[in-house]
C-alpha cells in the first residue's frame, strides 16, 4: 500500500509522512532531520551495537544527543539464503509502528518509535524501524540470571501486568518471549518494557482469550528454552500481575 494511502487509512497521531532520496517514511514530529540522515545511512554512524533477533542492531547518536536503535528488517528460515532483506506486499515497518503506538496509547511501556522507513526497489522494498534507546535496559533472560529471588517475582509480576495491558489495548504480539522483554532497575520495583511488535495484530477490541493463552504459552516456552530461573512462585507472580483477564484453565511452568 502506498504510504500516503496508508496514512489516510490509519490515523497515526504525532507522525508525518516524508519522502527523502526515494525512501517513504512515517516520522515522529520533531525528528524529521534525523530521519533524513538515517535514510542517507552513512550520515549517522553507529556508536555501538545491540544484540537482538537475527542480527545486532546499530545504535546511532542523533543531533539531539539522544541515541536511537536502527533495526533493518531481515528474513528468517530457508528463504534468507536467497532473499535476506527484501519484502513484497504489505507495509512491514508501518504496521509495526501502528501496533507499537496502539500499545503505547493503551499504557504499555515500549520503545518510542522515531521513524518507520520503506525503501522501494525494482521488486519489493527494504524496511527499517528506528526507536529511542531505552537507557539501562537488560533483556529479561539475562536479568533473571543475576537478580535476587525477591526481585525476580517483582519483575515477573510487572511483566504479567504489561502483557495484560497490551492485550486489553487490542494488540496481539506473535513473539512474547524473554528476549523481547527489557528490564530497567529502579529503587522501588523493576520496570518491564515490551519490544518487537513486528507482525503484531491490532484488534478492534481486547485480544481474544485463546490468542492470549497462546502468547503466554510462548513466554513459558522461551523460559524453558533459555533455562531461565523461574520457579512456580515466579509463574504465580506472572498470573497475579496479569489479573482478571488471565485465560481460564491456563497453567504455566
Report on this model:
The protein is built from seven helices and twelve strands. With 253 residues, it is α+β, with helices and mostly antiparallel strands. Helix 5 (149-168) runs parallel beside helix 7 (232-242). The radius of gyration is 19 Å and the shape is globular.
Task: From the structure above, extract its key features.
single chain; 253 residues; alpha+beta; 7-stranded antiparallel β-sheet; 3-stranded antiparallel β-sheet; 7 helices
Count of beta strands = 12
What is the radius of gyration?
19 Å
Helix content: 25-40%
* Spans where pLDDT lies below 50 across 5 or more residues: 77-83
- Largest sheet report: 7 strands, antiparallel
Give the helix/strand class. Answer: alpha+beta
- Tell the overall outline: globular
What is the H/E string? Answer: HEEHEEEHEEEHHEEEEHH
Task: Give the end-to-end Cα distance, rounded to a whole number of Å.
Answer: 42 Å
Q: What strand line-up does the widest sheet have?
A: 1-2-6-7-5-4-3
Strand residue percentage: 15-25%
| Number of contiguous helices | 7
Q: Kindly state the mean pLDDT as a whole number?
A: 89
Quickly describe the structure.
This protein has 253 residues and is an alpha+beta fold. Strands 1-2-6-7-5-4-3 form a 7-stranded antiparallel β-sheet, with helices on both faces. Strands 8-10-11 form a 3-stranded antiparallel β-sheet. A two-stranded antiparallel sheet has the order 9-12. It has helices at residues 3-9, 32-40, 92-105, 140-146, 149-168, 209-225, 232-242, and strands spanning 15-20, 23-28, 46-50, 57-61, 67-72, 113-120, 125-132, 137-139, 171-172, 181-184, 191-194, 201-202.
Amino acid at each position: 500500500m502506498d504510504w500516503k494511502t496508508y496514512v489516510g487509512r490509519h490515523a497515526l497521531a504525532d507522525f508525518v509522512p516524508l519522502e527523502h532520496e526515494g525512501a517513504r517514511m512515517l516520522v515522529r514530529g520533531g525528528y524529521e532531520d534525523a530521519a533524513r540522515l538515517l535514510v542517507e545511512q552513512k550520515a549517522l554512524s553507529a556508536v555501538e551495537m545491540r544484540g537482538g533477533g537475527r542480527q545486532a542492531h546499530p545504535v546511532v547518536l542523533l543531533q539531539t544527543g539522544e541515541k536511537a536503535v536502527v533495526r533493518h528488517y531481515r528474513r528468517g528460515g530457508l528463504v534468507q539464503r536467497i532473499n535476506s532483506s527484501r519484502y513484497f506486499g504489505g507495509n512491514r515497518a508501518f504496521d509495526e509502528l501502528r501496533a507499537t503506538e496502539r500499545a503505547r496509547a493503551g499504557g504499555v511501556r515500549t520503545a518510542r518509535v522515531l521513524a518507520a522507513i520503506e525503501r522501494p526497489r525494482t521488486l519489493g522494498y527494504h524496511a527499517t524501524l528506528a526507536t529511542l534507546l531505552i537507557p539501562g535496559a537488560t533483556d529479561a533472560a539475562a536479568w533473571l540470571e543475576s537478580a535476587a529471588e525477591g526481585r525476580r517475582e517483582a519483575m515477573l509480576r510487572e511483566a504479567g501486568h504489561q502483557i495484560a495491558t497490551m492485550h486489553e489495548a487490542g494488540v496481539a504480539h506473535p513473539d512474547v518471549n524473554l528476549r523481547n522483554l527489557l528490564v530497567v532497575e529502579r529503587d522501588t520495583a523493576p520496570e518491564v518494557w515490551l519490544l518487537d511488535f513486528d507482525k503484531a495484530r491490532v484488534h478492534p477490541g481486547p485480544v481474544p482469550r485463546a490468542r492470549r493463552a497462546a502468547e503466554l504459552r510462548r513466554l513459558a516456552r522461551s523460559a524453558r528454552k533459555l533455562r531461565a530461573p523461574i520457579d512456580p512462585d515466579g509463574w504465580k507472580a506472572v498470573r497475579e500481575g496479569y489479573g482478571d483477564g488471565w485465560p481460564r484453565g491456563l497453567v504455566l511452568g
